[in-house]
């Protein structure tokens, strides 16, 4: 899957491309599934070029799972035939090169595995950066998506109480992940106040609630956004630069193996349906993850 100009989902094209090969410190996989992330369509639209500089035409996708079929120079601990998940480039494809990876935990499907890399790295990073500690309460706005699903479970595993906001249809889902759930919309700030003190807050959806999150925490330094580019205007940190993906993948594999982390796949798409996957991702209201199956 490729695009030759920036624009809407209609610029995506299914093309025959040269097979990529693993360079030093890399592996190549036969892709079985690729995660669909907001950064995919933001890059396609030309929104985030500073963080993800590209040359056109360009491939699509960062996250993937599959079977190793080529190992680059200097790589050890992995062999052809191993089942892995990780991050690379142009992952909406039959073959992709990964720069960070981990073995897939037992019992995980390729579709499930493809949904973890970026969202778990993001979840671990924002929990760390917002500074919330065990015994404190974290408010998560937009909690039912992939990052939110990971944040809720990781925070609960660390002894952090979590209040999550989502639509009416996702209230039981948030509770199943260990969160105290409430709805967004009119009166949501008052509903959160009735649930108790908020020590830190995360804006994961970019729905224009940063000012209210600051009000609830009493301090802009206790709020962090990954979705509202205007957050710094209110003194709130915007986190958009990834940390260590190998460390995040190792922690994800450990959490999954211990039964402490499970992110459901809401919908799978064929490679030819990548444009529809982007449209659905951009519309939001996701419960868990969306993936492209190769």
UniProtKB/TrEMBL annotation:
Superkingdom: Bacteria
InterPro entries assigned to the protein according to its UniProt record, in alphabetical order: ADH-like_N (IPR013154), ER (IPR020843), GroES-like_sf (IPR011032), NAD(P)-bd_dom_sf (IPR036291), Quin_OxRdtase/zeta-crystal_CS (IPR002364), Zinc-ADH_QOR/CCCR (IPR051603)
Residue stretches spanning the membrane: none
Pfam entry (one): ADH_zinc_N_2
Gene3D superfamilies: Medium-chain alcohol dehydrogenases, catalytic domain, NAD(P)-binding Rossmann-like Domain
Localization of this protein: Cytoplasm
Record keywords: Cytoplasm, NADP, RNA-binding
Assembly, per entry: Homotetramer.
Keyword Protease part of the UniProt annotation: no
Record-annotated Enoyl reductase (ER) domain positions: 7-292
Name of the protein described by the UniProt record: NADP-dependent oxidoreductase
